[in-house]
Amino acid sequence: MSADTALAPGDELVEAPTRRRWWRRLGWLVPALVSFLSLCVAAAVVVWGEPSPPAGGEEPRPEATAPVERTTLEREEELDGTLGYAGSGSFFARSEGVVTWLPEVGAELSAGDRAWEIDGVPTVLLRGDKPAYRLLEPGSRGEDVRRFEQALAELGYGGFTVDGEYTLLTAEAVRRWQRDTAGMEVTGTVDPARIWYVSGPVRVTGHEAAVGGSAAPGTVLLGTSSTRQVVRIDLEVGDRGLVTEEDEVTVRFPGGESSTGEVVSVGTVAEAGEDDGGTGTESDPTVEVVVELTGDNVDFLDRAPVTVEVRGESREDVLTAPVGALLALSGGGYGLSVVDGDGTVREVPVETGWFTDGLVEVSGDGIDEGTEVVVPE
């Protein structure tokens, strides 16, 4: 129909009703699209979570928080050590014959105890710091006589004067001691092969001869040590400042038990480092550090690897936060989530210092003693 064509009476315009029917047919799509978009939003919430609050908005106050504290930090280090016994030495025969008795390995011996037997005759320990070297009998004089008389008196035998002169009274006391010692010949004189001086209790660490074997003067019979348990540490020279004599430490044994200890010596002679795993390169030179146990000994261990916890340098009057409160910032470095008085949380960049004992030294704008920070659970 042209624009200037008039409608005759009774004629109908066909286009209009045709367009209305088209919109009515599309009307069902609207609720369908709304439902589809709602499902998309729900899925997004499930996958990505609720949308973040607007910038500057308040977050709920976190439950796990801790205050920044001002304190002293002490540097703690764990060092590898080896548990053993202090000192080492040997007992050797002073006479010729057949070895007829030896103490068990691990046995602890002190003054008055048998050290060994040759041809059934015992050699007895006495307290002293120099070896016996001659026969003692009435009329003998000297410092070795005084040393023997003192040792005999410490075993409970008296009736003579400790004066360096071997008198008849000394001889009578010797006879009583010999009668009380099984296997000892009663002579009233002292054969140097029948006594062995020690400065204190000793521990048998090994047999160097066998019962039934032949011995001659100078034959090594026993390996010995003191009865004091110690820990030896090969400390790299660069770490020597970690410990000084009389420092208190904690020694942890295999199995979780622990004991206190005291540093008794720090070596002054550096030993060359060993080949590091066969790579051809040597580890750093080391000095020997000896720690003596001041708590309970570990009787069931003769030798074992241990861990020694030492405290070295300290930092006084520093601000600290729990290590778990640190955040890795997207731009690098670390920060803390600081909780303001109104409950809002904001990230604050910080500089970190020492890490020790679950704490970290921190500093930064807005970080002060008492500042509350979030510690994620």
TrEMBL record:
The keyword Zinc-finger does not apply. Keywords: Membrane, Transmembrane, Transmembrane helix. Pfam families: PG_binding_1 (PF01471). The keyword Membrane applies. The chain crosses the membrane at residues 26-48. InterPro entries: Peptidoglycan-bd-like, PGBD-like_sf, PGBDSf. Residues 141-193 form the Peptidoglycan binding-like domain. This is Peptidoglycan-binding protein. It comes from Nocardiopsis codii.
